[in-house]
Amino acid sequence: MNRPADRPGPFEGLHNFRDLGSLPTTDGRVVAQGRVYRSDALHRMTAADVAQVAGLGVRTVVDLRAPDEVAHVGVGRIPELGATYHNLPVRPTVLSDPTGADAPVAAAPSAAEHYVRYLTEGPTCFRGVVELFTAPDATPAVFFCNAGKDRTGAVAAMLLTVLGVDDATIAADYARTQSALAGIGAATIRDYPPDVARWRGLSPDLAHAREETMLDFLALVRERVGGWERYLEGLGVTTERLDALRAACLEEQGPSR
């Protein structure tokens, strides 16, 4: 039986940093350990956290936050990692409300519906992640947003699906964030104003990280765009590039003990 993906630590400023390695694929391989990490906001790293993340050999940092978020809280100690930093926002804006403060609030979509909107809001992000992670010497790499749950969860779902990980395993990894939400929530309150326009009126299930949310999202991706591979191909990602992602991130499973 494969053990769960690692959550390195403990960290002082991070609550949701973990390795996607060791997750099994449907063809009998596993996601290689130490290649791709997911996290909550890296701008909260302390000096000790920087030392630990740098010790993992991280070469590429992908920031999924919107430019207005980055402008508001900055990147903190990320430059101290010595890695190449890329801002590939899933959403164009988060802190500002383009419709105006007095605009009527539409009915909140479910968390899964909220996530599927990312595919139209951030196509450059999803394509860019694949391109970055298949560049020479790009890994180990880490990608993150604020909580490491929603936007990071969607990108993780894309990567893991392309790598051949099944829905149930992807959903279980997503749900691991639930235990980190209290710490992330406290940090978010410190960082952001309480009346962030884009965070008002969200559906209650977005306050949690439940397996059924990710399962519903994966089903919607198949229903709306024909699955992750078809979506990426529509963005110009070639089959050769997807094969390169698998070559970079998968390894043969070792013998059972």
Polypeptide structure, described:
With 257 residues, this protein is an alpha/beta fold. It has a single domain (18-94, 106-193, 203-251), classed as Protein tyrosine phosphatase superfamily (Protein-Tyrosine Phosphatase, Chain A), CATH 3.90.190.10. 40% of the residues lie in helices and 9% in strands. The protein has 11 helices and 7 strands. The strands form 2 sheets. Strands 1-3-6-4-5 form a 5-stranded mixed β-sheet, covered by helices on one side. Strands 2-7 form a two-stranded antiparallel sheet. Strand 4, helix 2 (67-73) and strand 5 (84-87) form a beta-alpha-beta unit. Helix 6 (151-163) packs antiparallel against helix 7 (167-175) and helix 7 (167-175) crosses helix 9 (211-225). The longest helix has 15 residues, at 211-225. The protein is globular, with a radius of gyration of 17 Å.
Question: What's the SSE blueprint?
Answer:
Blueprint: E1 18-19, E2 29-31, E3 36-39, H1 47-55, E4 60-63, H2 67-73, E5 84-87, H3 111-116, H4 118-121, H5 123-133, E6 141-144, H6 151-163, H7 167-175, H8 181-191, H9 211-225, H10 228-234, H11 239-249, E7 250-252
Parallel strand pairs: 3-6, 4-5, 4-6
Antiparallel strand pairs: 1-3, 2-7
* Count of structural domains: 1
Shape type: globular
Mean pLDDT: 91
In this structure, how is the largest beta sheet organized? 5 strands, mixed
Q: Tell me the radius of gyration.
A: 17 Å
User: CATH architecture, please?
Assistant: Alpha-Beta Complex
Which sequence of SSEs, written as H and E, runs from N to C? EEEHEHEHHHEHHHHHHE
Proportion of β residues?
5-15%
Terminal CA distance reads 9 Å
* Helical content band: 40-55%
